[in-house]
Design brief:
Number of strands of chain A: 20
Shape of chain A: globular
Largest sheet of chain A: 7 strands, mixed
Distance between the termini of chain A: 97 Å
Radius of gyration of chain B: 31 Å
Largest interface: A-B, 123 and 124 residues
Shape of chain B: globular
Number of strands of chain B: 18
Distance between the termini of chain B: 75 Å
Largest sheet of chain B: 7 strands, mixed
Number of helices of chain B: 17
Strand content of chain B: 5-15%
Structural class of chain A: alpha/beta
Helix content of chain B: 40-55%
Strand order of the largest sheet of chain A: 10-13-14-9-8-15-16
Oligomer: heterodimer
Strand content of chain A: 15-25%
Structural class of chain B: alpha/beta
Number of helices of chain A: 16
Strand order of the largest sheet of chain B: 10-13-14-9-8-15-16
Radius of gyration of chain A: 28 Å
């Protein structure tokens, strides 16, 4: 059997499970979520080992950024699922007062999730949790670039999840291409911009909606009002977690001229604090995933002046935490997403040049600003378009499940985490339920259109008018009416002798 | 050439790159960001709709014959209606919305900031030239985007009129009309817009989607599909027939949400046919070709396409055609099968095929295998059947016991699913379509010690893990027994600690002892606090 036939068969099986309606109940979905929770507990040890093998990552880091994170998302989903599944009633106008209008959350159907290698469980399971919550059936393809993690995931997903509705398919480019040839009801992809475009195109041929979680160069602005020491510590942490192989890692720093020297000095201090004098010996610092990425990163180091680090070891794919100054603006380190522990630092005098520079590039996934100046923060919010704006910290916006996560423009389409994941896999069907009676009310709308008064009546009853009051005028009017009434009541009760019961 | 189309007086796509650059510059200047600017442009648009009215009736009638009243309340006033709703609510919509946070981030500023997508393009369709371009545009203006609008070339007079009035009323720095056919549309899609809003057929929708995907442009696709209309045995057939006839024959069936085909329970079929005949007569008289209230098909190509659908099945009502006028009478066809031409594609014309069914469950199984439609119409009085249809059939909207009326509710988002489209609009949904809700998290620059937990070197510590569990992460286990008690205790201990810290700082306890509670003592507390603050 060819790959295409094999996957088509899997998809058909999932489709018939979906059509049977098994995923529609709350009980089924929460049951599967509980299985996920049990699975995360069970796979913990083996998974830590697998990630150690793939990229020598410290178990505590794997736990905090990958497993625990997913568990947290899962816990949040379990707490709120019932509320998410409920119909949302909408307000109706005068003419629709007797109708019921609501949005009915309906699963999109059979979907596919493409994971990525940098956080294998999080980037596959977190979307899958949303798919389960929404009532979809799903195929998950973990990335082949982290083979050990992929194998562990396959093993445990198969062991714990209902095989009628959820399947894990391992494989490389062939597999991905074969999967993309099928017609899904939604495609969730995490990965690079170039592959993202291929996915988007394949999806467009079938009018399949997509969620694309891509990357980009996330800028960091360090303003003169900030506490440099804290900024340096938080930036270095954000950059060195997972050896910089994080889509939301700070990519480059634009620092105020006055602070550059101190910033780099503090960064040096904090690198030593976290990873010791020789980070290669620290067990807390991860390695680059493979030789291809290692060589790519190694070549980037020469694009600027090395201020910190710059050491490499090809055998173990080690690249030390590296800070570059004076990077060439046209060099690779400033044009491509770095995705490794190399941090170019640029300096500025006029903040406007920074905004201009960032705006001339693709819209980033996150824009980081370190500042105590509320005005500057507000300006950055208005002038820099990005998926997220994180002020005074790195990565931590991920930890807020109520804050949707995702890109804009080239950094991605669609958002997830918390309820947003559920929304991605849900189609909110609009339902209008009109009573069959009172047909005479509708006489106005039917032809023959023979009387002008009919039209005028329709217009005045059923339509909003552009000269309607704005929200604040409306609010003021309401306030005025309420307070006048309250005032009248008050006057009646107190000022009118005898009204309160004959004193 | 100069980029100006002499015949229409509108701008062609020749200068597309310049237009995009100009709009992008205006966008980056930030002028579209203020509430005042957006409201003023919306009001300009409202004024334009008022001024265009009489010209528009003429233009539509020279493009396709259509009753003025229908143009009025399905097209012009519909756009007006959405505008009124947007003007009324814009101030609420553009406010950043706070999100709830857990203990770990409590007190921090976490919100969603509605940011305009940027410079967008809107492709209109010919069946409602004004409404289908203006309602998305209202959303774009409301969201603070700059926009290029391309009306359909199949209604050239409307398109030219729109271009002319647009230049007169709207701020040309931010909003433009570009006229032209498929070549122009293709040219437009060569550029990188920040969002594409398209209304039209599924086939062209796919082409737009593919082109957009190459540049990773987000899209809203408002397509069509065969919207099934189911009448079950419990329905009030008389009223159903009337409401279906209205939805089907309005604009000569050329409306994307028209009930496409009727599926009726076989026990009610003859009754339904009689009622349909009665209402066609009531609406359009004995000879609909003479009725001022019945529209014509837009062009010859569509006329031929719809006429071709008359093959197969028995014509019960209508069936007359007149090629010179592009007239096709309100037509009802029965004994239609899924193999007949009329069931192969969206009808988009005044033909109502009627099929009968015996068992609702079986019918739903058949319908599930079709492409997902824009709307499912269901006529019934049985609550159980309603719930069944709602659960089993996927569609953009579901309208129970009425046809196209739901469009008129700005509170209800409108749009398709699967082949009937992506994304939604009307009311706030139009605003959302053109908005990127940027997640904003402003952390405290101080309290760095509170972050010590997360930094390497990672030392294994049960205490650290426990703190992680309690403060930072939601747990997937339902906390029970001792753990739950400890968590709660810890939480209250933290709060109590904070309170006592404040009390200690302000030396409140000793002060409270001195006072009797009353107005006097409150004043004293106030005084002591202000003294403290001054120090």
């Amino acid at each position: 059997m060819s790959l295409d036939q094999e996957y088509e068969k899997i998809k058909d099986e999932l489709q018939s499970s979906f059509d049977s309606g098994v995923t529609l109940t709350y009980e089924y979905r929460i049951g599967q979520l509980k299985k996920c929770a049990a699975m995360i507990k069970a796979m913990e040890k083996e998974y830590f080992e697998a990630v150690q093998k793939d990229m020598r990552k410290h178990p505590a880091e794997t736990n905090g950024t990958d497993l625990k994170f997913t568990e947290s998302d899962l816990g949040y989903a379990m707490k709120h699922l019932k509320g998410w599944m409920a119909d949302q009633y909408v307000k109706t106008d005068l003419v629709n007062k007797i109708d019921q209008a609501y949005l009915c959350p309906e699963p999109k159907g059979v979907i596919v999730i493409f994971g990525a290698w940098n956080y294998p469980v999080q980037l596959a399971l977190s979307p899958l949790i949303g798919a389960i919550c929404a009532g979809c059936c799903a195929v998950v393809k973990p990335s082949e670039v982290a083979p050990c993690a992929s194998a562990v995931m396959k093993k445990y997903f198969d062991l714990f999840l209902d095989p009628l509705c959820y399947r894990t398919i391992e494989g490389g480019v062939d597999t991905a291409q074969a999967l993309l040839r099928l017609r899904w009801d939604h495609i969730f992809f995490t990965g690079s911009v170039s592959v993202g475009k291929i996915v988007a195109r394949a999806a467009a041929e079938n009018l399949t909606p997509v969620t694309l979680e891509l990357g980009g160069k996330c800028p960091v602005i360090v303003d003169e009002t900030t506490n440099v020491d804290t900024a340096a510590k938080r930036i270095i942490w954000g950059k060195c977690v997972n050896a910089g192989q994080t889509c939301i890692a700070p990519d480059y720093v634009y620092c105020h001229k006055k602070l550059v020297g101190t910033l780099i000095e503090r960064m040096k201090h904090h690198i030593a604090d976290m990873y010791g004098d020789d980070p290669e010996k620290s067990d807390c610092f991860a390695r680059i995933i493979n030789k291809i990425h290692f060589n790519r990163l190694k070549s980037l180091i020469s694009d600027g002046t090395v201020a910190i680090g710059g050491k490499t070891n090809e055998e173990t794919c080690y690249i030390s935490p590296t800070v570059l100054t004076n990077p060439g603006l046209d060099s690779k380190v400033m044009t491509d997403e770095i995705f490794g522990p190399i941090l170019p630092v640029l300096e500025y005098e006029d903040i406007q040049t920074v905004f201009k520079y960032i705006r001339s590039k693709e819209k980033p996934l996150v824009c980081y600003v370190f500042s105590n100046n509320a005005k500057l923060i507000d300006e950055a919010k208005k002038k820099v378009s990005s998926g997220t704006l994180d002020v005074n910290d790195c990565l931590m916006h991920m930890m807020v499940p109520t804050l949707p996560f995702g890109g804009v423009g080239h950094s991605g389409i669609g958002k997830y985490h918390g309820k947003a994941t559920f929304e991605e896999f849900t189609h909110h069907k609009s339902v209008l339920h009109k009573p069959i009676g009172m047909e005479s009310v509708n006489n106005l709308r039917y032809p023959p259109y023979d009387a002008e008064w009919k039209m005028n009546l329709i217009y005045s009853l059923a339509y909003y008018k552009p000269n309607a009051p704005t929200a604040s005028a409306n609010g003021f009017a309401k306030y005025a009416v309420t307070s006048t009434m309250a005032g009248a009541a008050f006057a009646y009760a107190y000022a009118w002798p005898g009204a309160s019961g004959g004193q | 050439s100069s980029g100006i189309n002499a015949e229409y007086g509108g701008t062609t796509a020749l200068g597309m790159e310049d237009i995009l650059t100009e709009l992008r510059d205006s966008y980056h200047s930030g002028k579209t960001r203020s509430l005042e600017y957006r409201l003023s442009q919306l009001k300009q648009l409202a004024a334009m709709l008022k001024a265009i009215k009489d010209h528009y009736f003429k233009a539509v009638n020279s493009d396709m014959k259509k009753p003025a009243e229908e143009i009025f309340f399905t097209d012009l006033r519909f756009a007006d209606h959405e505008m009124g709703y947007a003007i009324r609510h814009l101030e609420e919509w553009i406010k950043p919305s706070k999100v709830k946070t857990d203990l770990a981030f409590s007190g921090e500023d976490v919100h969603l900031y509605p940011e305009p997508r940027g410079v967008v393009v809107i492709f209109g369709a010919w069946n409602y030239p004004l409404q289908l371009t203006m309602i998305p545009l209202i959303g774009a203006i409301a969201a603070g985007c700059c926009a290029v609008v391309k009306p359909s070339e199949l209604v050239p007079n409307c398109s030219a009129l729109l271009a002319k009035f647009f230049r007169e009323f709207m701020d040309q720095d931010c909003y433009r009309v570009v006229e032209g056919g498929p070549d122009v549309a293709e040219k437009i899609m060569d550029f990188r817009w920040d969002h594409v809003f398209f209304t039209g057929s599924t086939n062209i929708g796919k082409k737009v989607a593919v082109k957009a995907a190459q540049n990773l442009i987000s899209t809203t696709l408002e397509l069509g599909g065969k919207s099934p209309t189911i009448v079950d045995q419990t329905a009030n057939v008389e009223t159903a027939a009337r409401r279906i006839c209205w939805g089907k024959f309005i604009n000569c069936g050329q409306i994307c949400v028209a009930p496409d085909h009727v599926l009726i329970h076989k026990s009610r079929k003859s009754e339904f046919l009689t009622a349909v005949q009665k209402y066609i007569k009531e609406f359009f008289g004995d000879d609909p070709s003479t009725s001022p209230d019945f529209a014509r098909i837009v062009n010859d190509r569509n006329f031929e396409r719809v006429r071709g659908m008359l093959k197969g099945g028995n014509v019960v009502v209508g069936g007359q055609v007149n090629a010179a006028e592009r007239y096709i009478a309100p037509t009802v066809v029965e004994s239609v099968g899924y193999g007949d031409p009329v069931m192969q594609e969206e009808i988009f014309g005044p033909i109502m095929p009627i099929m009968e069914f015996d068992d609702l469950g079986e019918l739903l199984d058949t319908l599930k295998k079709q492409e997902k439609p824009l709307v499912t119409y269901f006529f019934s009085t049985c609550k159980k059947n309603m719930a069944l249809v709602e659960r089993e059939l996927s569609s953009g909207s579901l309208s129970i016991n009425d046809t196209i009326q739901f469009l008129l509710m700005p509170q209800v988002p409108f749009g398709g699913v699967g082949n009937s489209g992506q994304g939604r609009y009307h009311g706030k949904a139009s605003f959302d379509t053109f908005t990127n809700y940027k997640s904003v998290h402003v952390r405290d620059p101080g309290m760095e010690w509170a972050n010590d937990l997360r930094y390497p070197p990672y030392k294994d510590s049960a205490f650290k893990t426990f703190l992680y569990d309690v403060i930072l992460y939601n747990s997937a286990d339902e906390f029970s027994g001792a753990k739950k008690v400890i968590c709660k205790a810890l939480k209250y201990a933290l709060i109590a600690g904070a309170v006592s810290l404040v009390a200690y700082q302000f030396n409140l306890v000793s002060k409270f002892q001195d006072y009797n509670f009353g107005v006097e003592s409150l004043q004293k507390i106030k005084d002591s606090v202000s003294t403290y603050l001054n120090v």
